[in-house]
Amino acid sequence: MKQRSIYVCTECGSESPRWYGKCPNCGKWNTLEERLSEPAPPRGGAMHASRVTAPQAPAAPAVPLSAQMIDDIEERGLTGLSELDRVLGGGVVKGSVILLSGDPGVGKSTLLLQTCKQLCAGNGVLYIAGEESPRQIKMRGDRLGVDGGNLYVAPVTDIEEVVRYIYHTMPSVVMVDSIQTMRHPSLNSGAGSVSQVRECAGLLAAAAKSLEIPVFIVGHVNKDGGVAGPKVLEHMVDVVLHFEGERHSAYRILRAAKNRFGSTNEIGVFEMNEHGLMDVENPSLAMLSGRPKNVSGTCVACVMEGTRPILAEAQALVSKSGLASPRRVATGFDYNRSALIIAILEKRAGYFFGNLDAYINIVGGLKLDEPAADLPVALALASNLLDRPLGDDTAAFGEVGLAGEVRSVSQAQVRVNECARLGFKTIVLPKSCMKQNITAPDGVRLVPVGNISQAFGQLTMDN
């Protein structure tokens, strides 16, 4: 018997047989969501409390946690892309559900298809193609060098048929591209709606857990950059990955917003070329390539992305404004944080930006959201304002407080070692970090500073 649909208000929980723009019970707008109703109990099923019998035993007994084998839980499958394995925490866990989101054209389908090279071993990979035909996937696979001998493509969008495919073929990995094209036949709403995405993701997650098969799900993003669909979608899955990158840039950044099997601070860096996505083993060197020499308004920042230190170039440009309200533009850096740093430079260091436009750019498409990037951005702004270049072999890290003080950051020794490895001879760091017994490699000079005035004054005096 086909289940009928009901509409439930997300605010008050009331149910309606049809959709209304305004909830009849609480009066809220656009809060009714389509759901599948529970089957009605058989006629005469309601019984008096005195006639209720003891409930039956559960179908599957509870298993003691001590009976679980750690080796089985920790067993991971390598994807063939070291940067993807890093973000996943070492590889793909059996029975995990991984949601991959990103802007159109960033390379989500390319990333999944390239992982098929390694994951096709065993029972093969089942690729659910909701957006492309098998011929189109074959064309991309030939370009990427993917052997399709053990890769099975099913161009279906009916989620019940997809589940039947999974149980029939029993693949090693399942890839669904994309969840917004899947549709449950019992729901009247169109594919991609909130109810369709929720129900389809629930069936895929149930199949993954019961069969111990990892499932990759491609998800679209909305105009704000978040995962399209209900927020419960991110709660259903085990891993949420965001694939970022400018369409005109060769570099792509993979971030983990949620990971039940690893850290959410790790990032993976890829380079897109005619052969697909290539791992960038040394992102710092790639981000600093082409850096100008002896130019004001540039400073190298050292930030931590998980366990990996990454060096990125922070650029600043200050110019006379022709507007009544000067412009403040930040690319790759938080806009509010940049306005705060400019205010600190004016109040605590005496630099005037009142009638000047200020532009901040992080080269390479990186987004620096760690507080350790405050000091390099402040130094770049002051350098361009006074047109006095910093040393070409200078790197910096440190958080800037409202009083103009430079505060300590974590893993200072790791940052110093990475800067020295890439040839930087002068490293500006918070004075409080010296309490961590920081040692400088041979030929590297540490410049501990207590405030931003002292930092810029020390560097310009040396140069």
Summarize the structure in words.
- The structure is a single chain.
- By secondary structure, the chain is α/β, with parallel strands linked by helices.
- The chain has 3 domains: 1-37; 76-281, P-loop containing nucleotide triphosphate hydrolases (Rossmann fold, 3-Layer(aba) Sandwich); 286-462, Ribosomal Protein S5, domain 2 (2-Layer Sandwich).
- Helix content is 27%, strand content 25%.
- The chain has 12 helices and 23 strands.
- It has helices at residues 70-74, 82-88, 108-119, 134-144, 159-169, 194-211, 232-236, 283-287, 335-349, 374-386, 412-421, 452-462; strands spanning 5-9, 15-16, 32-36, 76-77, 92-93, 97-102, 125-129, 151-154, 173-177, 215-219, 239-244, 251-259, 267-273, 276-279, 298-305, 308-320, 328-331, 356-362, 394-396, 399-400, 406-407, 426-430, 445-449.
- The strands form 5 sheets. The protein has a 9-stranded mixed beta sheet with strand order 8-7-9-10-6-11-12-13-14, sandwiched between helices.
- The longest helix has 18 residues, at 194-211.
- The protein is globular.
- The protein starts with a strand and ends with a helix.
- Residues 45-51 have low confidence and may be disordered.
Distance between the termini: 81 Å
What is the name of the CATH architecture of the largest domain? 3-Layer(aba) Sandwich
What class do helices, strands and sheet pairing give?
alpha/beta
User: What is the residue-averaged pLDDT?
Assistant: 87
CATH superfamily membership of the largest domain, which one? Answer: P-loop containing nucleotide triphosphate hydrolases
Largest sheet: 9 strands, mixed
Tally of individual helices: 12
Instruction: Please state roughly what percent of the residues sit in beta strands, choosing from under 5%, 5-15%, 15-25%, 25-35%, 35-45% or over 45%.
Output: 25-35%
Whole-angstrom Rg: 27 Å
Task: Identify the overall geometry.
Answer: globular
Please, what is the oligomeric state?
Answer: single chain
What is the total tally of β strands?
Answer: 23
CATH class group of the largest domain:
Alpha Beta
